[in-house]
Each structure stands twice: as structure tokens, then as C-alpha cells.
Amino acid sequence: MIRRSVLAALAVLLLAAPRPAGAADAPVLQSDKLLVLSTNDVMGKTGPCGCHVPKGGLARRATFVDSLRALYGQVLLVDNGGYVPLENERRDVTGFLMDAMRLMGTDAVGVSDRDLKFGREFLVQRVAQAGLPVTSANLLDKATGKPLFPPYLLKKTGAVTVGMFSVLTDQADLGPSKDSLAVAPAQETAKRMVAELRKKGAQVIVLLAQTGGPPGEDLVTAVEGIDVAIMGRNVSLIERGRRLGKSIACYGGTQGHYVCRTELTLDAARHVREAETQAVMLGPEITDSPAIAASVKAFEDALSQKTGKSTAAETKDETEK
């Protein structure tokens, strides 16, 4: 099986891989800083695009994340969902991307309606196999009314407790799962999640919003208590993000060409005092992680042999301006 053999090789490579150049034995814990790194709508892309300036790819993402983990003591890595490939013949990429995200130490993964492309059971099984921390607050089993995945995740990152949850758009296309799944109202769900997370001790709250741009902005503006909103579902790239009331929202485009870097400055109670976000292009100046690059090549070569189709150069992300 492609995924298992490549995953085994990846795990060995990661264990043997050297740490980033200049990395100290351990990053200095800056208790007043929390760094949130995020991706969304990767759409099954594993390598750089075939653009004029090639950008993106798992290997560059891993290097970028590792370099910041070497500098900051409190780093959160999240993905806003939408990673399932668009092409039917590339469905095996789903499990590979999940494995890669877990091995990179991803703290939370949201759910997009695109991730249900191959059906409910396909997604549930792949999540279980990868052991990925997936969350979705308003994707419900129609028969029981209960969330399909944990509605939120609570994580202690250094000295700060972070609450993370994901919501789908109310207009989500559930595809082959429409008979067994339902979507609860996003705004109502978000208000409930914020209240519950604060009650459980969350000092910082991160929303993974698979809602589209304007509806997501309306939600964040209406729901008090969201500190960081990762905007997804075909949103356009905005390099410096936006302030939405007391929240900050980041817009990382699609296909994994960028990683959003959101730096939060915390007060003595570990609540957000200041925030700034930037979408950072994963361009050629960011070197590939040798471990991840080798695993991507092995996987794509095996997939090409299986499908009889070579890996085509990826096209430019038209949502990027």
C-alpha cells in the first residue's frame, strides 16, 4: 500500500533529520508571545506550484514551521481543512497529507465540505488511521444530532491554554453524505463554543472558519471572544489580514502556497493584548525539508505508477492577487 510504505520511510527520515541550522537546544519560552501558524484549502497539493515563481509544498512548509519553533516557545500549528484533492484519481493523497500533518505536529485540523468529497466513511476512517486532531463544531450526524468529530480542542501550549474549534458554512455541500449528515447554524454554534471554551479555561480562542470570506467576517464580527480567525473556503489571499472588531483574521489563499503567521502578544493573564498577521509565501528562498521532500517524491512516484498519470505541474492559484 502506497501510504504505509511512504509513511514508514517518512517517520524514519524525520527521526534522523538534523534540526534547522542555528536552532538552539530549546527555544526560549516567551510567555507573552503565542505564534499561530495556519494553512487552509491545500486541495491535495504536495509540492510547489508550476508558477513563474514556484511556491508552496509540504517540504517548504515543514522547514518554515521548524524554523519558527526553534525561535518561539509557544507555537500552534493548525490547518483549516480543504486538503482533500479535487481529482478523483488522487484520492490516496488524502491519507498522505493527513500523515504528513500529524508528523509535522499539527495541533488542530478543521473540516471543509470539500473534505467530504469521497463520503463520510472515507473521511472518518482516514482521520482515525492518521490519528489526526480533527475538530468540527457544527457538522452533525443527522440521526443522533451529535458532532461527527470533537466540537473543539483544548491545548496547553507553553504557559497558555488555547481553545480551537471549526465551523462549516451553513450552505455546505455534503455531497454523498447529505443523507446522513447535517450542518447546524454556524453563528449560533460559534457563540456556544466560545462560551464553553472560556468556561473550560481557554485564554486564547482560535476559529477555523470554512465559511467563505464575507460570511466568515460577519460571523467573527457578531461573535464576541474569538481572538484569531483562520478564513477558508476559497478566500482570496490578503497578505496582512484584517481586523474584525477585537479579532484578527488571516487569509492564506489556497493550495498551500502560503502559511499565515499570526503573532499574539499576551497580557499577564495570557489574554490577547496585541495581534498581527501576515501570509508568508513559501517561495524558493525557503529550503525543502529533506525528509519531507524525499517522502513527497516517493509518494508521487508511486501514485503516478499506480494511476498511469505523471504528476503534472500545478497551475497558478487564481485566488491570489
- pLDDT averaged residue by residue: 90
Rg calc = 19 Å
Instruction: Write the CATH homologous superfamily.
Output: Metallo-dependent phosphatases
The number of helical runs is: 7
Q: State the helical fraction.
A: 25-40%
Estimated structural class: alpha/beta
- Regions with pLDDT < 50 over 5+ consecutive residues? 12-24, 312-321
- Specify the overall morphology: globular
* Count of the domains: 1
Summarize the structure.
With 321 residues, the protein is an alpha/beta fold.
Written account of the structure:
The chain is an alpha/beta fold. The chain has one domain: Purple Acid Phosphatase, chain A, domain 2 (4-Layer Sandwich), CATH 3.60.21. It is 28% helix and 24% strand. The chain has seven helices and 13 strands. The protein has helices spanning 2-16, 58-69, 93-103, 120-130, 186-199, 213-222, 290-307, and strands at residues 33-39, 75-79, 108-109, 139-141, 153-157, 160-168, 181-183, 204-210, 228-232, 238-244, 247-251, 258-266, 272-281. It has a six-stranded mixed beta sheet with strand order 5-6-8-9-11-10, with helices on one face. A five-stranded mixed beta sheet has the order 3-2-1-12-13, covered by helices on one side. A two-stranded antiparallel ribbon has the order 4-7. The termini are far apart. Residues 12-24 and 312-321 have low confidence and may be disordered.
